[in-house]
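Protein modeling request. Please complete all fields; requests missing the sequence field cannot be processed.
Requester role: graduate student
Desired output: 3D structure, token encoding
Chains: 1
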Amino acid sequence: MNKSTIFAFLALLIASMACNLVNQITNGSGTKSENVLFKDDFSDTNSGWDKTRDSEGITDYDNNAYRIQINTIGESSNGMSYWASPGLDSQMPADLRIEVDATKAGGADDNDFGVICRYTSANDNPSFYQFMGTSDGYVGIVLVNGGDQKMISSEKLQPSDSVKQGDATNHMRADCIGDTLTLYINGTKVASATDSTLKSGDVGLIAGTYSTPGTDILFDNFVVSKP
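Delivered output (227 residues):
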């Protein structure tokens, strides 16, 4: 399980866990098969992602989905994020597209959920780009660099009518192409940023709390493809 405290509204610091190489398995993505780099419908519970459960939260397979549940807001009471990655650093090109279906299964709408690209962790100091939505209808793109976080799509999270609020499923797409980062939700472009800090790394899933514990997100149909 990877987890971090959120300052203000975003993920920050982390204790990293190694993941095994994920086996490719089929799912229902509409992406052309020749462009698919990796995919997982989480029906195989040994496909390589974290399987961690404790009193503070869960990153684990759950009924043909991948579950991230967070039952804490951290020692400073300003939020907590957990994430998981399939351990594909060496196999992931710099330019790629990530798609996933994210369903709110429980907790407050004041949460966040999404995908990450170009993830690395040196000396337990993570770096990645985070593409995020919230169940109360906000979106944004964040740079986490060695544990330090910065909003790069705008000064703060922005409202978006494209996000299905409450206990709903949102289809997310994140394009990491050169210095251009773009987030789509339910087929609509909702945020973009230009940044050259991170060059390559793993992909993954992320969810977080703010002032209320209990964020519970189910992810399915995870697909990484050539853009």
